[in-house]
Design goal:
The structure holds three protein chains of three kinds. In chain A, the strands form two sheets. In chain A, strands 2-1-3-4 form a four-stranded parallel sheet, sandwiched between helices. Chain A has a four-stranded parallel sheet with strand order 6-5-7-8. Chain A has 14 helices and eight strands. Chain A folds into two domains: about 120 residues, Rossmann fold, CATH 3.40.50; about 110 residues, Rossmann fold. In chain A, about 50% of the residues lie in helices and about 10% in strands. In chain A, α5 packs antiparallel against α6, α7 crosses α9 and α11 packs across α12. By secondary structure, chain A is of the alpha/beta class. Chain B is of the alpha/beta class. Chain B has a single domain, classed as NagB/RpiA/CoA transferase-like (Rossmann fold, 3-Layer(aba) Sandwich). In chain B, about 30% of the residues lie in helices and about 20% in strands. Chain B contains seven helices and twelve strands. In chain B, the strands form three sheets. A six-stranded parallel sheet of chain B has the order 1-12-7-4-2-3. Chain B has a four-stranded mixed sheet with strand order 8-5-6-9. Chain B is globular. By secondary structure, chain C is of the alpha/beta class. Chain C has three domains: about 120 residues, no CATH class; about 250 residues, NagB/RpiA/CoA transferase-like (Rossmann fold, 3-Layer(aba) Sandwich), CATH 3.40.50; about 60 residues, no CATH class. Chain C is about 55% helix and about 10% strand. Chain C has a six-stranded parallel sheet with strand order 1-10-7-4-2-3, sandwiched between helices. A four-stranded mixed sheet of chain C has the order 8-5-6-9. In chain C, a hairpin with a 4-residue loop joins β5 and β6. The chains are: A alpha/beta, B alpha/beta, C alpha/beta. Chains in contact: A-C, B-C. At the B-C interface, α2, α6, α7, β9 and β10 of B face α2, α3, α4, β1 and α8 of C. β9 of chain B pairs antiparallel with β9 of chain C.
Chain lengths: ~250, ~220, ~475
């Protein structure tokens, strides 16, 4: 009987970056997990939470808890969504009848890289990616979930991958959700600084634990016509060196 | 009670502010668990003299070890000779009277009993209440020649003994409390180097409004 | 029509975000701080224990604020000092102004105090015909430029030496030839010397008010604060009520932590303790000692169970230094006395949530501030709480409230959510297909102003799942 995980796919990944989730599934299956995707899932509530509309975030959070209540593990390819579930659901749902279910669920919800390393106990996932890669330490994963080393442990085991450290890897890329639109100039300036740090490494790819960072960075890099491409962590680990085109190269 | 009613008429906001504070504090805020006792925040100081000397270097302070008062006097004379002409302000204390007599500097001395130092003072010479190894600091109070003595002149010279060395800030402050130094003095200061600024381009400039040189003549035998 | 604070902020942020020279100056300053800060932390054996200890000290002080303030006041008065409690900035300014006028003060020398900025003390004194000299080098520089401090610890970090030299030549002495920082400091020292000796009143702030000893504690490096509190015959301290700490021994950890967080030093050059006017027999010192305790909205924060800890702030500036928003827009953009994360949390409380909520929104919530605060204030969380407070106070746009109402409706209905997503992608495909990316018809036009458009996938993940990914 295979071990089972339930996949939570952030709304923007579902709609705009499906490859992120496809590759997450691929890797989880490769290391021996059966993956379920409860189709009633929608959003963790982060946009409403972050904009201050906790009254609107609350029912969204309750819906999430109901959908995933019976999951053995919830795995999500986004540190920011997981931090909402683990760190903010207790506060958000303090007066809800689902309060205890939420607390229990929070302890079984993991960001992709921390699940692999801390729960599944693997760092070698049989990946091949003969390219130079630099790592951006996405803020929520870093500071709220305390994910420091796990992504690097995974990347170091990838065959042929050359890991290059960037300066100020822990400085925010500037996405910040609605911040990117409400304070567009600041967001773009922060993204530009991050793009410069990336460019200084000369790496072919930049990766992170949050695909939202990468979506924002890819836009900035694209506008600058920079050669570096963004690639989500699972998409690197999904590369198994077999014949097919890598999904990275499919990306424009 | 005269004080209180005076305050009420001259400072009516006092009661209002206190009332607002008390009202605010009626809201109970849960407190997280306290620090486990015995947690060591600072590395214990095993060799205070060595540590003090190391810190002096980092603080851009000069520390000269001397064996006796004759050597201290020679050191004092040497420092004073290196400075431009002009008076030296000296804390009026028997130990410093003796030291100055031994050093016999060729410049006018203004004793603290004659008044505070001014712009004419090229150097000030004072005792200290204690030396602090952890941070390479001297602790002075108003009794050490006054407030200006450690800040007005371009060079401040401190005459101290190794017996005055305490390991850390905690013990120095504890001593200040126990000996009620702040009841008998309106002023105290922990000084850890020459004055400095980094306000321009974050570049360190030694010697701002206070002394450019802080010299400690540290006598090993009292 | 005059701009709101939010409009001004957006405008200034746009200007500064594009200013590459400004970014480079700040980048260099902050890089140097980063290195110094890490070195400073390495000197402390257990940094996390130090933070926790400082948090406990400040929590104890603030949770018993009345008791410790009264203890402090009693000791100061017993030594012949005066304590004045000011409900707001106006009362504080009036007290100092009246004191100065009554005692024939014509010149004041001032050392750095953010509270005096908050209450606009200098303009109030100057209106009464009193000349005020800022003596901290950074404050001296921005005073000459007639602008507010850029940063609470390094007020002039936005200027390079060339700009400062030019300023000195124009305002002080055309003979200043060099732009070397040491020479510029020497020029400032020379000019300010006369002020120190001529001034009848010295005004300082206080980093801490030590309750059991009844003294103020000031942490400085330059010596100007020492001179302001040694030479003039009247010494006035202007401080917030929250600065109190219980015991003198608390400084054993607070002093090193403040210095480490502020500048990376192990301790500041001068840790000054003053408890009253000069005592009989002392060589020098002020003849009169006044402490002005300023409330100005602080006591109201006590009642806020979530955010009372914001009063623990020791004004070290570490959160400003680490904040990526601060690093890109700089201190002046905030348009408030206190910039950076602490300013963004505090200002809506002190100056009104309606007018200043935008500061709490102008953050990506990266959490760096919380991670670096030496007294462990969870600043990032408070920014989020301020946002919640703003919506609950009805201070946000009704159009936004409606958008989230609709969002919530959709998020509770999986099929509607899926359909909504599909519709948006379809619409974007059409718009981009017509070459209208970035135009008024493009819902992503703000995004697309600075970024190449997000490539649109043909299918959502859930569609892929249904189609061919379901089997394990």
């Amino acid at each position: 009987m295979k071990r089972k995980v339930s996949l939570f796919v952030p709304c923007f990944v579902d709609q705009l970056l499906p490859e992120v989730a496809v590759d997450t599934v691929k890797v989880l299956r490769r290391i021996g997990y059966a993956v379920e995707f409860p189709e009633d899932q929608t959003c963790c509530g982060q946009p409403a939470l972050n904009t201050g509309y906790w009254g609107d975030a609350r029912p969204c959070a309750e819906h999430f808890v109901r959908v995933f209540k019976n999951a053995d593990f919830v795995v999500c390819p986004s540190g920011s969504c997981v931090s909402v579930i683990r760190l903010f659901y207790p506060e958000l749902l303090a007066h809800s009848s689902l309060r205890e279910d939420a607390a229990a669920l929070a302890s079984r919800t993991f960001e992709f890289s921390e699940f692999l390393v801390k729960v599944a106990g693997v760092t070698q996932v049989g990946a091949t990616f003969p390219h130079s890669v630099t790592y951006h330490a996405s803020c929520h994963g870093l500071r709220e979930l305390h994910i420091h080393d796990e992504p690097l442990q995974l990347l170091r085991q990838v065959d042929g991958l050359k890991l290059i450290e960037m300066v100020r890897s822990e400085e925010c890329c500037g996405f910040g959700g609605t911040f990117a639109v409400k304070f567009a100039d600041i967001s773009a300036a922060m993204g530009t600084s991050k793009a410069e740090s990336v460019a200084a490494t000369g790496a072919e790819f930049v990766t992170a634990t949050d695909p939202s960072c990468l979506m924002h960075l890819q836009g900035i890099l694209g506008k600058r016509r920079a050669p570096t491409r963004t690639i989500y962590l699972a998409s690197i680990l999904a590369q198994d060196g077999l014949a097919q085109k890598s999904s990275a190269q499919e990306r424009p | 009670m005269a004080q209180t009613s005076k305050a009420q008429t001259e400072n009516p906001s006092r009661e209002r502010i206190l009332e607002q504070i008390r009202a605010g504090l009626r809201t109970v805020v849960p407190e997280p668990p306290a620090l486990r006792s015995g947690q060591v925040i600072f590395e214990p100081i095993n060799n205070p003299l060595e540590r003090f000397q190391q810190e002096c270097v980092g603080n851009l302070m000069e520390c000269a070890l001397t064996a006796d008062s004759a050597a201290s006097a020679r050191q004092l004379a040497k420092v004073l000779q290196s400075l431009p002409e002009g008076e030296a302000f000296v804390q009026d204390d028997p130990a410093l009277r003796r030291l100055i007599e031994l050093a016999a500097p060729a410049r006018p001395i203004r004793w603290s009993s004659q008044g505070a130092p001014g712009e004419a003072s090229q150097a000030t010479v004072t005792l200290a209440e204690a030396l602090i190894a952890q941070t390479g600091s001297i602790l002075v109070t108003a009794s050490c020649g006054g407030r200006g003595a450690s800040v007005i002149a371009p060079c401040h010279i401190v005459y101290a003994t190794v017996a005055q060395l305490v390991p850390d800030l905690a013990s120095a402050l504890s001593r200040v409390s126990q000996e009620r130094k702040l009841d008998s003095n309106s002023f105290a200061c922990v000084i850890s180097g020459s004055s400095r600024t980094a306000d321009i381009e974050k570049i360190l400039v030694q010697g701002a409004h206070g002394p450019r040189r802080l010299v400690v003549i540290l006598q090993t035998v009292t | 029509m005059s701009q709101t604070a939010a409009q001004r902020f957006l405008h200034d942020a746009a200007v500064k975000s594009a200013d590459l020279m400004h970014r480079e100056i700040i980048r260099r300053g902050m890089d140097s701080y980063d290195v110094a800060h890490l070195k400073g932390r390495a000197r402390i054996k257990d940094w996390e224990a130090a933070r926790q200890k400082c948090q406990e000290i400040k929590r104890e002080a603030v949770n018993h604020l009345d008791r410790y303030l009264l203890q402090f006041e009693e000791k100061v008065i017993a030594r012949g000092g005066h304590v004045f409690w000011a409900a707001n900035g106006e009362e504080a300014c009036t007290y100092v102004k009246n004191l100065a006028t009554r005692l024939g003060v014509r010149t004041v020398v001032k050392s750095k105090s953010m509270v005096t900025e908050e209450i606009h003390l200098s303009p109030a004194l100057e209106k009464a015909g009193i000349k005020v000299w800022e003596t901290d080098l950074g404050e001296f520089i921005v005073q000459l430029r007639d602008e507010p401090p850029y940063h609470i610890v390094t007020p002039a970090m936005h200027l390079n030496r060339g700009q400062i030299a030019k300023l000195f030549r124009e305002k002080l002495d055309p003979g200043i030839g060099s732009d070397d920082p040491a020479d510029l400091m020497a020029a400032a020292r020379r000019i300010l010397r006369q002020a120190f000796f001529a001034a009848e009143m010295g005004i300082s702030g206080a980093n801490f008010l030590v309750a059991d000893a009844g003294v103020i504690a000031i942490s400085t490096n330059e010596g100007n604060g020492r001179l302001c509190t040694s030479i003039p015959r009247i010494h006035v301290v202007v401080t917030g009520i929250e600065k109190v700490i219980p015991r003198l021994e608390d400084l054993a950890v607070l002093w090193p932590v403040l210095a480490t967080s502020g500048t990376g030093q192990g301790i500041t050059t001068y840790g000054t303790l003053i408890g009253g006017p000069r005592r009989p027999g002392e060589v020098d010192g002020a003849e009169e000692f006044h402490v002005v305790l300023v409330d100005n909205g602080r006591s109201q924060l006590l009642a806020d169970a979530e955010q009372r800890e914001v009063l623990h702030c020791i004004r070290c500036g570490a959160c400003l230094n680490i904040c990526p928003v601060f690093r890109h827009v700089g201190g002046h953009t905030y348009g408030t006395t206190y910039p950076g994360p602490i300013g963004s949390v505090l200002t809506p409380h002190l100056n009104g949530i309606k007018e200043f909520k935008h500061l709490s929104y102008a953050s990506s919530l990266c959490g760096a501030c919380s991670s670096v605060c030496p007294v462990k204030i969870d600043l990032s969380h408070h920014l989020l709480q301020n946002r919640r407070n703003a919506t609950e106070a009805g201070a946000t746009k009704s159009s936004e409230r409606l958008i989230f109402r609709a969002w919530r409706y959709a998020m509770l209905r999986p099929r509607m959510y899926a359909l909504g997503g599909w519709s948006v992608r379809k619409a974007l495909r059409i718009i981009y297909g017509l070459g209208l990316a970035g135009s008024i018809l493009d819902p992503m036009r703000v995004w697309n102003r600075y970024r190449s458009p997000v490539p649109l996938p043909s299918e959502s993940f859930r569609a892929r799942w249904r189609k061919d990914l379901g089997a394990n």
